[in-house]
Amino acid sequence: MSDDKTGEPPAGPGRRAVLCGAGLLGVAGAAAACGGGPREVEPSADLKGREVAKVADVPVGGGTVVPEHKVVVTQPTAGTFKVFDARCTHAGCPVDRIRRDAIYCPCHGSEFRIADGTVAKGPASRALLEYPAQVKGDGVVVV
Fold first, then answer.
1. Coil, strand or helix: which one is 88?
2. How many domains does the chain contain in total?
3. Which segments constitute the Rieske domain (predicted)?
4. Cβ pair 29, 21 in contact under 8 A
5. Model confidence pTM above 0.85
6. What is the pLDDT along the chain (143 residues), one digit of tens a residue?
């Protein structure tokens, strides 16, 4: 292709190069946004500072679903507590139990690791949202 006035190729990248580059950037951005790693997020105002479970109710190597707070509280190792959003990242269904050391979603069978909320089994491709938490007295509190 040439410049109409000079008969020389236009300066800079051609339209095809620009479109291909934009397409590659879009794919890279989508891949980064859909990463499966743990994602700690700021809790909502109604959850922040709230006790979501009693330490005694969260077994070591397991966890408990707390429907009234829409969270899952796990204790992957003794004394380590994690709080995750209880909505599956595949279709938003509520997870309903811990099985085989994984948080289970009954809608399509996705499973998430109790230690960090990452995907153990799809179709979900992103980790559960994790809320910062700590033990205060005999309770697990979202901070």
1. coil
2. 2
3. 50-142
4. no
5. no
6. 555 555 555 565 565 554 444 444 443 333 334 445 555 667 777 889 999 999 999 999 999 999 999 999 999 999 999 999 999 999 999 999 998 899 999 999 999 999 999 999 999 999 999 999 999 999 999 99
Same domain flag for 122 and 78: yes
Same domain, 50 and 64: yes
Q: Which domain holds residue 17?
A: 1-33
Whether residues 46 and 70 fall in one domain: yes
Which residues neighbour 56 within 8 Å (Cβ) at sequence distance 6 or greater?
Answer: 138
Looking at the fold, whether 125 and 70 belong to one and the same domain comes out as: yes
Q: DSSP 3-state assignment of 76? A: strand
Question: 50 and 142 in contact (C-beta within 8 Å)?
Answer: yes
